[in-house]
Design a protein that fits this description.
69 residues, mainly alpha, 3 helices
Length: 69
């Protein structure tokens, strides 16, 4: 399968996460996880890449997106 790359601001990325959080959890949890992982990798600085004990920069969901039944 081909990959697609989007370039968005952090604000726009947060809007995407917010919009996805309105969908049923079982439909979007894998996509949210994949986007979250990629965004965190891109936003890491050299100091946070090797800092496994502290808070890392990046996207964090403030509340659970949903709950699988």
């Amino acid at each position: 399968m081909k990959n697609v790359t989007f370039t968005v601001t952090v604000k726009e990325a947060n809007m995407i996460f917010k919009a996805l959080s309105k969908f049923p959890f079982e439909e979007v949890f894998e996509l949210i996880g994949k986007l979250n992982e990629q965004s965190n990798q891109q936003l890491q600085t050299p100091s946070t890449q090797n800092n496994h004990g502290g808070e890392e920069e990046g996207f964090k969901l403030n509340k659970p997106v949903g709950k699988a039944n």
